[in-house]
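Support reply, case 0932

Customer input (verbatim):
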Amino acid sequence: MKFIAHIDIMPHDALLDPQGKAVEGGLAKLNLSTLTQVRVGKHIRLQVEADNSGDAGALVDSACRHLLANTIMERFQYRLEELV
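Our regenerated output:
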């Protein structure tokens, strides 16, 4: 079976996000100061081949924990979409 994994990686809420602060400052300069609490992360999309969704999820989780996310500073979540 083939799946598409949609992975979102964001900095932990307790940590400063300098890139988010820079974006927030830019929004304020554009008179969009009502847009606040900006956090910048990344979205990764990849294809997974596995026997079932459980195995696919385990592969994606392992990739996130060991390579894609720095779990000390970031949290991740993902969803799987089966390709037909």
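We compared this against your earlier run and they match. Two observations from our side: The first helix runs from residue 18 to 29. The helical segments are 18-29, 53-68. Please reopen the case if you see a mismatch on your end.
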